């Protein structure tokens, strides 16, 4: 390597200063970027932190219970190796209990094209907007003396209502954090000692006290707010006042449904249906068919 005894030219000094400034700017950009990333993660964590689903009051981060510690899977009727973690904590997605409703006229937050789950019992109707359901996945309530749960799995957009009555009383559904074939596994919130898991799509309990327990399904439909309101102008609508801080007016799974890529494995899929195809499932006398 050769060293020059000649003083550096003005051009080389300018270039050196430029490079140093560039390095400083690049470093500042990296630091600011890291800071924003950390802040964003903190904000996300504060929004989707788990909560006490019974009271709808946000719980502290220290109250988180890992799903793998909260539930026993050793007696599962589904293959244990196919049950995966969708969310690491129990109740990170908090189900709703004793929710509030508003009239159709007061539901100014609804747009015509918004999708809703419609439920009717004894002449009374209720609408459950998917933009709220995506953040909670289950609503435990009752109407006309029937205890029911409206359930929604955003990953597969499956909509099912269940009668919560069992031989050992009325259960309440909470979100366990586990998935099977990209479908939510709920749990029995009324069993504190050893809560059983419940598969939404099969309608069957798979562990503990719920093992092999079937919940009666109730008729619901998935339609638009414009259609539902036109047919049921006196309908009640699930209120934005859930007790939780969520951005209900922004689509929670917009990016997920913008393509056909899956986040979690799906087993025994039918090749005639592309990923995320909408189908209607009909079950009669134990036989199920999709159309």
Strand fraction equals 25-35%
Total domain modules: 1
Indicate the radius of gyration in whole angstroms. 25 Å
Query: What does the overall shape look like?
Result: globular
Structural class designation: alpha+beta
Low-confidence residue ranges: 1-62
Separation of termini?
Answer: 76 Å
SSE pattern, N- to C-terminal: HEEHEEEEEHEEEEEEEEEEEHEEE
Number of helices: 4
Q: Mean of the pLDDT scores?
A: 83
Tally the beta strands: 21
Query: Largest sheet at a glance?
Result: 5 strands, antiparallel
Strand order within the widest sheet?
Answer: 3-13-14-15-16
Helical fraction: 10-25%
Task: Tell me about this structure.
With 291 residues, this protein is an alpha+beta fold. It has helices at residues 10-47, 67-70, 130-133, 225-231; strands spanning 51-52, 57-58, 83-85, 96-97, 101-103, 115-121, 124-129, 138-143, 146-153, 158-163, 165-166, 169-170, 173-180, 183-188, 197-199, 204-205, 217-218, 220-224, 236-238, 281-284, 287-290. It has one domain. The chain is built from 4 helices and 21 strands. It has a 5-stranded antiparallel beta sheet. β20 and β21 form a beta hairpin. Residues 1-62 have low confidence and may be disordered.
